[in-house]
Write a structure and sequence with these properties.
- Helices cover 29% and strands 11% of the residues.
- The longest helix is centred in the N-terminal third of the chain and has 16 residues.
- The mean pLDDT is 91.
Length: 129
């Protein structure tokens, strides 16, 4: 099996409820992180085999937020992306799945992690009883 290494790690800003990041979609923040990692490592966008991003709150944000982030970051349409929704373990599960894919020889380079949706952007439902 192949050895797997983490080449770079980044963290998006953490905001407060109703704060300055309240209206920014998670996919925009994810795209900023992806762009920064590609620039700092010198990896060309077409070298990425896949993007795996965890995101817990996905209601109302459109299909596959990981794909949205990868497209916004300038990755080619040919690079697949998958959003993992496993509540608090989504980002860690994305890294775990990336590790498995690389160890098994299914991929060479995967961008994996999590992008947090702001509670302010996600729809809320009130049950009236």
């Amino acid at each position: 099996m192949k050895e797997v290494v983490i080449v770079a790690a980044r963290r998006t800003a953490v905001g407060s409820f109703g704060g300055s990041l309240a209206g920014i979609p998670a996919s925009d923040l994810g795209a900023l992180v992806i762009k920064d990692i590609l620039e700092s490592t010198g990896v060309a966008p077409d070298q990425v085999d896949e993007v795996l991003l965890g995101q817990v709150l996905t209601a109302g944000v459109g299909q596959n937020p990981a794909r949205q982030a990868s497209i916004k970051a300038g990755l080619p349409d040919s690079v697949p992306a998958m959003t993992i929704n496993k509540v608090c373990g989504s980002g860690l599960k994305a890294v775990h799945l990336a590790t498995q894919a690389i160890r098994c020889g299914d991929a060479e380079l995967i961008l994996a992690g999590g992008q947090g949706e702001h509670v302010c952007v996600s729809p809320r439902i009130a049950q009236l009883a």
